[in-house]
Design goal:
six-stranded mixed β-sheet; Butyryl-CoA Dehydrogenase, subunit A, domain 2; alpha+beta; FAD (chains A, B); 3 domains; Butyryl-CoA Dehydrogenase, subunit A, domain 3; homodimer; flavoprotein (chains A, B); acyl-CoA oxidase activity (chains A, B)
C-alpha cells in the first residue's frame, strides 16, 4: 500500500468499520453486500469486467451490458437469489446489491425501475396476474414511454392517442384501443430500454373513449416486439435515439405508433376503465389506493436522493485518495513535496462535498423511510391526509432538485480537483459524471421542481398567517418552519444569538439560522407574488416573475431539512449505540462543516435582514477553515468508510492501495490507438504531409 | 424558417450585422471569414463533414481529424493562403479562420500553438534558420513536452534529465545531450500531438552540464520519430494516453526516454548555452528579449480568454434558439404553449451567460492588444517595466481563471437548460462542453492562478499603504483599484451613492461597487496573512490558510476588470462609429445585466462591510428581472450576431432555421445501434433470456 495512504489510515480517530455498518444498516448487511460483490468480481465468465469499457465502441458496450444482465439473471437463479420472492428478482434486496456490484449501467433498467412498479400500482388484480409472471420470467421486458419528441414535463400536452374501437366496428373481441402518433413530434422519445431491448412499453396516451371524448392521459401496455423473435409488431417503429453525453449502455429509444391495435384490457384499469361498449368510468377506488400509487412513484425520487449521496461518495473517495498520494510544491524544507490534500484550497473544494455525501445519506434514508411509513399506513388503512402527501411531495422535490445539483457539480469539482489526470477516462470521473448528469434532468427537472415545493409551502405560510389549519401540519417536515414563520409574521425579529466565534460552530445555532433563512425567503416569495398581483400582473405573470426567487427559496428549504436530518440522524445512531463517541464526533464535524460552508456561500441571505450581524458573519469563513483542519486527519478514513471497492470505483486514481501511476499507464497502453506503430493515421494521411505529397503553392494564387 | 424564430428576428431593436462586424473587426474581416467558411463547408472531398463524428470510434475520429489537417494544408497551398508568410501557415490570419471553420479538433494543434512559438522565442537565430523551414514544410511536426506523469504545475520538480556528454567521452561531434527518464513518474505525460502525430518534441528537462551541475529546467528539441517513415527512434517510447472526457481527436501522449542522445545544439540556446566542453553560461541577452519570450507565452492565455467568449457564444446561441422554438406549459388562454424563452427562470440562467460571452470578448480583445503593444514596445526597444509585465501577468491569470470557470459552468448550464434534448450528442452541447473542460485545467490550473494574481496585487497594496512606488502602476490595469485601496487605508468609508432602484442600474455606480469589493477583499487577504504570521504561523502556512480568500479576491478583481473593459469597449465602439445608438443601447443592457447578476450572486460581499445598505441591496434582484425583460426581445438577435454557422455549431437544437425536431430524429436514425433489427444484442444475449435459456432455480439454493 502507498505509504502516504497507510499513514493517513493510521491517523484516523475513529473506527471505519462502524461507519461502514451505519451506511449498510448493520454488520449483517455489510457482510451480505461484500459477499455479493465478490460473486460479481470473481465470476468466472469475465463478463462483468469493466476494464475495457472506455475502449469499446458504443455498440459493443451496449451488447456487453446486455450480456451482463443476462448473466446476472443466471447467477441469481443458480444462487437462489429472489427465490423467496417467487423468482421476482426486482423484489429481492440481493438483486439491488448485485446491480450495485456490477458497477455498470444495464439496458434493462427501466423494466424494474418503471415498468413493473407501473403494473403493480396501476393495473387491476386480474391484469397483474396476467403480466407479472411474464415479467418475472423476462418473457416481457418493459419500458415506460411517456415523454415525446416535442413534449417533456408538460404531460397535458402529450399527443399520442389511444382511441377505443368496439368489436362492432372492427375492434378485437371485447373492444380495442388504437395507439397512434399523430405527428412527428408525437414520437415517444427518451424512454430507457425502449430502443432495442424492450418488447413491451407502458405507453402514456390520451384516451379517446367510445363516444369520442378525450379523457386525458392514461396508461396502456403496448406490445412492441414479438416475444418469439423480437421482430417489430405491425405499425410499430422503434429505435435508439443516438449517442448521449453519458449513460450510453442504455438504449434510450423513440417509438412511432401507426394505428397499432391492442386489446381493450391492455389499458391499466385500476383507477379507471373503459367497458366493452367504450364507456369510460372512474373506478371507486379508495383515496388511499391512489395515494399509494402516488407514493410509489415518489420512491423513484427517494432513490435519486440516495443516489446523490452515493455518487458524491464515489467522487470524493477518488479525489481524496488521489489527493493524498499526489504531491505538488515543496514543504518548507524545500525538499519534500506537499500532499495535495494539505492545501486549504483543495480541502475547501472537497471536504464540503464529503460532508454533503454523508449529509445526503441521512436525508435519503429518512425520505425513504417516511415514504414507506406512509405507504404502510395507507395499506393498513390508517389515515394519511392530503397535507401529509403534499408535504412529502415538497420534501422529495426539494431534495431531488438540490441534491442532484450539488452532486452533479460536486463530481465535476472532484474531477477538476484531480488536475490533468481527472480529465482521463481511466480516472473514472468522466463516466461517473457524464452518466450522473441525467439526474438533474429526469424525474422532474431540477429547475421545474422548486415551483412545486413553493406551491405546497405557500399553503403553510397562509395557514400560519391566518392562524388557521396549522395543526394539520404537525407531522410534516415543513412544520419545522413554523416558529420562524410565526416570528416573521408577528414582526418579532429573529436574531442569531452567537456571541463569539465558538458559538457560531454550534449545530442548533446554525440550524436556527437556516430555519430563519428558509422561512424568510419563503415569505418573500409570497410577498412578491402578492405585490405583483396588486400592481396589476396576472397570477400567471406574477408566478413567472417569482420563479427565480422560488428557486432560492426551495434551495434554502432543502438546506434546512438536510441539516436537521443530518443532526437527527447522528443522534439516532448515537442512541442506537452502533456508533461510539469517536464516530459521533467526526460526524458532528462533517455536519458543522456542511452548515458553515453553505452559510459562507450564501452569506448575503443571512445578513441582509439583520439575522446575522456583520460581526457574526465574519466568524463563518474562519470557522470553515477550522473544520477543514479538523476533518483533514480523518479525510481518507471517512472516504474509506463508504467501502467502495476498486471494482466499483473503476478509477486508476481512487484505488485503495494508492498505486496510481502504474494503473494510469496500464490504461494508456490499452488504447486501440496504440495497437499499431506508427499510429493508424500515418499511412493514410500523415505520410503524404511529412514526405511532401500535399501539393505546392502554384505561381499565382487561385481560388478553389 | 421556424415561425417563432422569424418573429424573434423581426422584433430585434438593432442591426445584427453591425454587431457581427464588431466581433470580426470590420466588414472586410466578416466577409473574409465567411468566404473561408464556405471554402471548408463546400470542399468537394467531404473530409470536413462533422455529420458522423458521434458515431465513430475514437480511433476513426483521430484518423479523420488528421485527414482534415492534411486537406487543410492542401487547400492553403491551392489558394495561396500563407504564401505571404513564406508558406508559414501558422503566421497567416487566414489559417486561423480556416481552423475555426473546420469546427473540429486537429491532432496537429500543438505544433503551432506551442512548438513553433517555442522555437521562435527560445532558439537562437541559427537554430531558427534550421528548424523553422522544416516546420513550415511539415517535415517536422512538433509538440511541447513539459508535464510528467508525476508532476504538472510544479515545474521545479520535473525529473527528466538532459546530461551533457562531450565528444571526448563518446558524445557526438561538438558534444551531445542525453535525454533520460529516470523513473516511471518521469514519463512525459499529457502533451498534445505527442502520442501518434509528432516526430519531434520540445522537451523540458533538467540540464546537467559538463561538470555534473544541475542547471535547472531547459528546453531541448528531441527527435522522436524518423522523418522518413515515422518509426520511433532508438530509446524513445511514445504512445497515446488513452480516452479522455473530451478532446479525443487529439493524441495527448506519453514519452519515455531511455538515454536518448541528441546533438548539443538541439538545446534551445537563445538565453543560455552549453559549449563543446560542457560549460554552461547564461547569455547576455537584453532583459527585453526575455520579456518578449514571456509575453509570447502569455498570448496563449489571451487566446484562452478569447476562447471563453466564443465557447459561451456557441452554447448560448444553441440554447437561445432552441428555447425560442421549444414550447412548454400553456399560456393564460389555456391553449397556446409558452416558449421556454419566456420563463424568467430560463432567462435568468441564460441571459447572464449571453452577457458574459459579450463581456469576455471585450476583455479578451483588450488583453490581446495590450500584450501585442508591450511586445511591440519591447521589440522597438521602448521601456517596459517589470511592474508592467507583472501586472499583465496578473490580469491574464485572473481572467483566464475566472472566464474559463464561467464558460465551463455556463456551457453545462446551457446544456441542462435544454432539458432532456441537451443530453443528446446531437445537441452539440456535450462535445462542446467536454472538449472545453480542458480549459480550466491547462495553462495554469484555475485554482492555482489566483495565488499568482494576489501575489502581484499585494505589492500594489503595499505601495499604496506605504505611499511609495504607486506611480510605477499608472499604466497598469491594477492602478484602477488605487482610489478604493487609498480610501480603505485612510479609514474613509466608501459607500454606494444610489438613492433609488434606478440609480442601481447605473454602470459607473455599479463599477464603483465592484472596485470597492475587489479592493476590500484584497486588503482582507493582506490582513489575514499579516495576522496569521503575527500569531505565529510561518509565511508558507499563512499563505496556505489564505488560499480560499485569494480565490475570492482574484475573482472579485476579474469581475471589476471585466466590467470596466466592457464599459470602455462599448464606448470605443461608439466613438469609432461602427455602432449606432440602437446597438450601443443593447450592449449597455448586457453590461448592466452582467454587473447586476454577479452582484446578486455575491451580494454578501457588498453588504457585509456596509458598502451597500440592506435597502440598496434589495434593489439588485428586481433590477436583474428588469434587464431580463429588456434583453428578451433581442435575445435571438444577440445570439445571431455572433454569426456562428450551422456547420460550426454542429447542433440539431441550435440551427439557424429552428428546424429542430427532424434533425434530432435524423441524428437518431444514424446510430449504428439502429443498423440492424432486432438490435445487435438480441441474438447473442437477449434471445436466451426471453425465450427461456438462462437456467432455472434449482431445488435448493446453491452457492457459486
Amino acid at each position: 500500500m502507498n505509504a502516504d495512504l497507510k499513514r493517513e489510515r493510521e491517523q484516523a480517530s475513529f473506527d471505519v468499520l462502524k461507519i461502514t455498518h451505519m451506511f449498510d444498516g448493520g454488520k449483517a448487511a455489510t457482510d451480505r453486500r461484500r459477499y455479493l460483490e465478490r460473486v460479481i468480481e470473481r465470476d468466472p465468465t469475465d463478463i462483468f469486467s469493466n476494464d475495457d469499457n472506455h475502449y469499446l465502441h458504443r455498440t459493443e458496450r451496449h451488447v456487453r451490458a446486455t450480456a451482463k444482465h443476462v448473466r446476472l439473471v443466471e447467477i441469481c437463479r443458480k444462487l437462489g437469489i429472489g427465490k423467496e420472492c417467487g423468482g421476482e428478482l426486482c423484489e429481492s434486496d440481493d438483486f439491488y446489491f448485485l446491480l450495485d456490484a456490477v458497477a455498470d449501467d444495464l439496458p434493462t433498467a427501466l423494466h424494474w425501475v418503471m415498468f413493473l412498479p407501473n403494473i403493480k400500482t396501476l393495473c387491476d388484480d386480474e391484469q397483474q396476474a396476467k403480466w407479472l409472471p411474464l415479467c418475472r420470467d423476462w418473457k416481457v421486458i418493459g419500458c415506460y414511454a411517456q415523454t415525446e419528441l416535442g413534449h417533456g414535463s408538460n404531460v397535458r400536452a402529450l399527443e399520442t392517442t389511444a382511441t377505443f374501437v368496439p368489436e362492432s366496428k372492427g375492434g378485437k373481441k371485447g373492444g380495442s384501443f388504437v395507439i397512434h402518433s399523430p405527428s412527428m413530434t408525437a414520437a415517444k422519445f427518451w424512454p430507457g430500454t425502449l430502443g432495442r431491448t424492450a418488447n413491451h412499453a407502458m405507453v402514456i396516451a390520451r384516451l379517446i373513449d367510445g363516444e369520442g371524448v378525450d379523457r386525458g392521459i392514461h396508461n396502456f401496455i403496448v406490445p412492441l416486439r414479438s416475444m418469439e423473435d423480437h421482430s417489430l409488431l405491425p405499425g410499430v417503429k422503434t429505435g435508439d435515439i443516438g449517442p448521449k453525453i453519458g449513460y450510453n449502455n442504455m438504449d434510450n429509444g423513440f417509438a412511432y405508433f401507426d394505428n397499432v391495435e391492442i386489446p381493450r384490457r391492455n389499458m391499466a384499469m385500476r383507477f379507471a376503465e373503459v367497458d366493452e361498449n367504450g364507456k369510460y368510468s372512474k373506478k371507486h377506488v379508495s383515496a388511499a389506493a391512489s395515494k399509494v400509487a402516488y407514493i410509489t412513484m415518489m420512491q423513484v425520487r427517494a432513490m435519486i436522493v440516495m443516489g446523490s449521496s452515493k455518487a458524491l461518495a464515489m467522487a470524493t473517495t477518488i479525489n481524496i485518495r488521489y489527493s493524498a498520494v499526489r504531491k505538488q510544491g515543496y514543504n518548507e524544507d524545500g525538499k519534500t513535496e506537499v500532499q495535495v490534500l494539505d492545501y486549504k484550497q483543495q480541502q475547501h473544494r472537497i471536504f464540503p462535498l464529503l460532508a454533503a455525501s454523508y449529509c445526503f445519506f441521512f436525508s435519503g434514508r429518512k425520505l425513504w423511510d417516511n415514504l414507506k411509513k406512509i405507504e404502510h399506513k395507507l395499506i393498513s388503512k390508517k389515515p394519511v391526509t392530503k397535507v401529509q402527501v403534499a408535504d412529502i411531495h415538497a420534501t422529495s422535490s426539494a431534495l431531488k432538485s438540490f441534491n442532484t445539483m450539488v452532486a452533479a457539480d460536486g463530481i465535476e469539482e472532484c474531477r477538476k480537483a484531480c488536475g490533468g489526470h481527472g480529465f482521463l477516462a481511466s480516472s473514472g470521473l468522466p463516466e461517473l459524471m457524464c452518466s450522473y448528469l441525467q439526474s438533474p434532468t429526469v424525474e422532474g427537472d431540477n429547475h421545474m421542481l422548486p415551483q412545486q415545493v413553493v406551491k405546497v409551502l405557500l399553503k403553510l405560510v397562509q395557514a400560519v398567517q391566518s392562524g388557521e389549519g396549522v395543526d394539520a401540519y404537525t407531522t410534516c417536515d415543513s412544520y419545522s418552519l413554523v416558529p420562524s414563520l410565526k416570528a416573521l409574521f408577528s414582526g418579532q425579529r429573529e436574531k442569531c444569538l452567537a456571541v463569539n466565534k465558538t458559538d457560531m460552530k454550534d449545530l442548533p445555532t446554525l440550524l436556527l439560522a437556516f430555519r430563519h433563512r428558509a422561512a424568510m425567503l419563503l415569505i418573500n416569495v409570497a410577498k412578491q407574488l402578492n405585490d405583483d398581483v396588486m400592481n396589476g400582473k396576472s397570477m400567471q405573470e406574477a408566478w413567472n416573475y417569482a420563479l427565480v426567487a422560488m428557486a432560492k427559496s426551495s434551495k434554502a428549504y432543502s438546506l434546512f431539512l438536510l441539516l436537521r436530518n443530518f443532526m437527527e440522524g447522528i443522534m439516532e445512531e448515537q442512541r442506537s449505540k452502533l456508533l461510539g463517541r469517536a464516530e459521533v464526533s467526526v460526524l458532528g464535524d462533517l455536519a458543522r462543516m456542511f452548515a458553515l460552508y453553505w452559510m459562507e456561500k450564501d452569506i448575503g441571505d443571512f445578513i441582509h435582514d439583520g439575522y446575522l450581524t456583520a460581526k457574526q458573519a465574519s466568524w463563518v469563513a474562519p470557522n470553515v477553515l477550522e473544520f477543514l483542519d479538523a476533518i483533514r486527519p480523518n479525510a481518507v478514513a471517512l472516504a474509506d468508510a463508504r467501502d467502495l471497492s476498486d471494482f466499483r470505483l473503476k478509477s486508476a486514481l481512487g484505488r485503495y492501495d494508492g498505486n496510481v501511476y502504474p494503473h494510469i499507464l496500464e490504461a494508456a497502453y490499452k488504447d486501440p490507438l496504440n495497437s499499431v506503430d506508427p499510429g493508424p493515421a500515418y499511412d493514410p494521411e500523415l505520410k503524404r504531409l511529412i514526405t511532401g505529397g500535399v501539393g505546392v503553392y502554384s505561381g499565382t494564387a487561385s481560388r478553389l
